[in-house]
Every structure is written in structure tokens, then in C-alpha cells.
Amino acid sequence: MMFRFQPKFFSIQLTLNSMRLIVLRSGRIRHFAQFTSDTPFLKDGVWQKQTAQDFLKEKLATIAGLHGNTVALSLPEDKTFTKVLTLNKKIDLGNEKDILTEIEQYIPVPIQDVYADWQMVSSGIDRTAIAFTASEKKFVDDLLSIFSQLDLQVLALEPESHSLVRALLPEHARSEAVCLLEIEETHSTCVVQEGGVIYFSRRVPNGSWQNLCRSVRESCQFFTSHLSPAQRPVDHILLCGIRTPTDGDSLQQIAKLLKYPVFLAQPWGKRKPPASLKNDVTAYAFSVALGLSLRT
């Protein structure tokens, strides 16, 4: 699932019915775009390939200066399985069969039906922690075929949670336990990371602010009591996404409901949003696409 990039590529996040695109060159935003489709790209969790192909072909043709045919793509968070396994034994990371056997116990589909990637978190004489991500092969293959039909080469696939961490948390800020909350039109993605490792990822329907905040608060508490190696509390929560409230009163109210310190994320960092997005909540919608574009 993880591949090296060629020098030039652009990043695309496909959501239920929209596309967000970023072209980053030498640390500068060269192009960005957001388009919305009247017809969903996903129906009952299945890619509507012809709909997506026709839409992408039409919209990509309108972006001047979009050089190259290589692209990095995000995988929707609700179509990936992300977890840290803590095993009461030492395990060899080179023993793929043993690792896949362990992963299979934590996913709802047979291991032969998924693509999986993993990394060591910690290792001791009788204890091993492994972070893994998996996604169903059919879902991934259908996504790849959409771009193959457009003569675009996919050089990397990455869960949205990984892109969010890269976009919103510089490396020096990843040692703390931080919750990232991406608030979209119909749902929100809650990600909790510590030390650059994603321990928790959950997509929840928005509903009322009270219900959303309760769900996020419970997720943070679950991380502390069951997942954090040192049972560390979440230090603070960063907000991003198209429905991010930006006024002070709303942020105070959300912080009161969450019972955690809450801050607006800075996905654009030192790059600053393009002038057309400045002071516009749309700027917060590009967090995943930006994180993808920052892959090296």
C-alpha cells in the first residue's frame, strides 16, 4: 500500500461526492481545487466507477498547469482498519505469515481479502506492539481502476487519518496524545495519536453537537484507559474540516461539551491558505489533501 514517489505528483481526496486536489512544488501550493458532484461516487460502500471516471475526467481537464500523470490518493477512513496490536510475546517483523495471522483476529474480513501494512511501535523480550492498517482488496482495486482508466498512475494510497496527522501535527508536536477531529458535511472523523502512532480512528455521524462531542469525548477516554501505553490523557483536540466552527463563542461551547482544550488546526502551516480561501472555512477542508501532498 505504500510506495515511493516520483519527484512530481498531485494529491486527491475523494469523498462521498467531492474531489479535493492539491499540487505542491518546492513547498509551495501551485494548484488547488475542490469540486462537488450531484451524483455520489460511493453507494453502499461501493465505488460507482463510471460516475467517478466521468466526473474526474471533466474536472481535471479544467485545471491549467496540471503536469504529470502521477497521483497520491487517500482512502476513506471508514473503509480502513487501523489499530495498534499489543502482543504478549516477541515477534519477528520479517515473519509476514505470523503478523498477518495476528492482524486477522482484529478485522471483520478474511486476511486474504485485504491489503495490509504495518510497522513496529515497540518490542521487548515478551511484548511487541505493532501498528497496522488494512483495507479490503476489492474496494482498493476498484479505486485504482478508476484512475487507471484515466491514464493516471497511483503512486501511494494512504488512510485519511495518516494524512491528517502529517498535515496538522509537525513532528515536534506528535509526542503528546492529541485528538484530531475532522468535521465534514454528514460525518466526522476522530483520530487519536501519540508519538506519531495512530492508536484510534473512528468515523461518526454528525447529528447534534451534543451527540458528536459526547462520542468524541468517549473516544478520548477510551484511548486513555485502554490504548495509551502509559494511560496518558488526551492533551487537546484540534478541529478541521468543512464544517469547522471558527468563531470564538462556538469554540468555547464545543470545548465545554468536549471537556478538553480545543484549538483550530493550522493545516496550511507556514504556507498560508491561497488568497481565495483566506478567512474561509473551506480552507479547513483541505487537511487530508495537504497531508497527502507533504509525503516525501
From TrEMBL:
InterPro entries: ATPase_NBD, PilM. Signal peptide: none annotated. It holds the Pfam family PilM_2. This is SHS2 domain-containing protein. It comes from Candidatus Kerfeldbacteria bacterium RIFCSPHIGHO2_12_FULL_48_17.
